[in-house]
Estradiol 17-beta-dehydrogenase 1 isoform 1
Amino acid sequence: MDRTVVLITGCSSGIGLHLALRLASDPSQSFKVYATLRDLTAQGPLLEAAQARGCPPGSLETLQLDVRDADSIADARAHVTEGRVDVLVCNAGRGLVGPLEAHREGAVDSVLDVNLAGTVRMMQAFLPDMKRRRSGRILVTGSLGGLIGLPFNAVYCASKFAIEGLCESLAVVLQSFGVQ
């Protein structure tokens, strides 16, 4: 039986780390998880938790992937030995808290580059194959900040509102290609 191949961005902590562990340790052994991290030196907690949970051999593999870099994305994609990704989880994210006028341009650019442009880059890399196979799922980590504006989170909320619009627009188009 072919396992469902899942690639998750942002697995050094939080939702990405816990989702990777949950799928890799699933009793059905239905998933092959590629847990990606911008910096592989941060993989220690993930690998320690995988060992503690008793993840079966071959259920979890870590890859270096920086959503800000198209070459990094292409390299990670090339390391997926199954030749396909069934489920793409765009989870990498960055926050920015404080008064808008206090943020440096580089900090604003970084949030938009990771949260919005990084998600677009990931979709651009994996959608063509999903559409060709007429199969696949894309999950994008949202936020309450993508539904309502939160005080002192203007840039973060703007990036998450944009993600909501991106996903709503794509859902209609991708349905006819069998991609959810």
